[in-house]
Each structure stands twice: as C-alpha cells, then as structure tokens.
Task: structure prediction
Amino acid sequence: MSQGALTLGDMAFSVPYTLSPSKVSSFTDCALAFRFSAIDRLPQPPAPWSTKGTLVHSALERLHLLPAPERTLDAGLAALDEAADELHSDPDYTELDLDDEAARSFHEEAAELVRRYFQIEDPRRIEAIGLEVSLDVEVEGVRLRGIIDRLELDADGELVVTDYKTGSVPSVQHERKRLSGVHIYSLLCEELLGRRPARVQLLYLKQPVAIVTEPTEQSTRGTRRTLAAVWKAVERSCDREDFRPRPSKLCDYCAYKQYCPSFGGDPDEAREVGLAAKAEKAAAKEAAVTAATAAA
Ligand code: SF4
Result:
C-alpha cells in the first residue's frame, strides 16, 4: 500500500455491519475484492451478465405471482417483456449503452434463459409461499442478511429454498462453495421460521440443470462454524488492514481490477474513490431531505 496516503493510512477499516451469502463467498474467493465491495463500497459499473440476471429473476418472480394454471411458457415470455419495459429506464440497463444489435442479443439471451427454465421444472406445480424474501437474523454473533429467490412448500408440506442462477454451472470444486452459500439460506430460514428446509436447490438456467442439496443437522452445524470463522477472519483483516488479492479466473469479471496490485493498481486509490462516493451519496440524501422539508 502507498506510504504517501497518510490520511487514509491513519484510518482503520471498519468491520461491515452484516454478512450475506454473497459476501461470504466474495471474502473466501478474494479478500481484496471483498474489501473493495463491502468495506470501501466502491460503486460497481453495471455489467451485461448481472443486469441480464436481474431481468430474468424479475420475469420469474412475475411468472410465479400468476395463478398456477396460467404459468405457461408464453406467460413467462410475456413476464420477461414486462420486466424489460421496466428495466429500460434503469441505469443498470441504460449505462450498458447497448447498440441495437447488442440489445437484441441481450433480450434474446434473456428469453432463452426463461425458455430453459421451463425445461427444469413446471412452474404450474410450484406452491411458492414467498418470492424475493428478505431475511435478516443474528447467528453466532453475526448479523446475517440474504434474499431468497423463492420459498415454497413441496407435496409433503416441507420447505424448499430455490435460487435461480443465470451463470454457468460451477466446477465440482466450486459447486461445493456455491452450495455452502445455499446452506446459509437454509440456516437463515431455520433461524427465522423455526424449520429447516427439506431441500435447497440451485436452478442453473443456462445448462439447464438443478443442483439440489438436503440440509442436515451436520451441515447446519458446519455452516454455523464456517460463518463464525469467516466473520473472525473479516475482523482480523480489518484490524490488520490486510486484505490480500487472490488472483483466479474470477479476475476476468472483477470490477475492481484497476485498483488491484496484482494488475498494477493501488488499493489506496480505491479507498479514496469509495470515500468520495460515500460523501456524494450523503450530500444527495441531505439535499433530498432539505427539498422535501421545503416542499412540505
Ligand atoms: S482482480 Fe482478481 S485478485 Fe484482484 S481484487 Fe479482483 S478478484 Fe481479487
């Protein structure tokens, strides 16, 4: 780290308020990328794959809000069109700055993901009891937050957690990691609803394939241990101001590469950008409050 940045160097890293399945996975993938995102809170420019993921999630949420018999493929594609109309004015889409051809491919790829979803399951047979469910609970002294794409009851009345994935199926080694994230959702459910889900499933729409796991007493204990260990490691990293880069294939998708020392960047610059973004956000919030007060 640069020795010249005295002001920043004097500031310890603050421990984030919460953990989420994605933050746990981010920290274990690369501590430095976690720092940029969860601690420096660097704004992330939108990327086509994440915006497409948001669009498809929104279409599937709309589909499952329909009465069961109406959840056909045509209804799924109509839900996608509705979600796309809404997305078109969103900065996550407009800032992609897609030309006509790129926009056509973007929408066609999203439609293909919706078609493939129907190859995995028949939505008319799903009894969702919650869509995009926000969960927030304290476990092992850690404030945990997460959003479950779909919570449902199976034919035996057991809870099932479903998470849609619009990326590729991970390798066997990464599959365990992704599943450990899903076990965190299971733990969140168990803590809040008092019942362990019978199944947790990841629906990879691209392939299309479902990866299913059945949480047990043992996996729940393991998840608790993992969470406590990750939280301790995060605290230690904040305390020592030590977040190391861990180059991997994920660097190809990393939004913070320009600040990463493994690619010639300076993490202190990221800290400045993060502080400036935070100040800008606070000023905009204050201005909005002042405007609202004046209008009242
Ligand atoms: S570029 Fe790679 S090593 Fe650097 S912060 Fe991003 S993920 Fe980590």
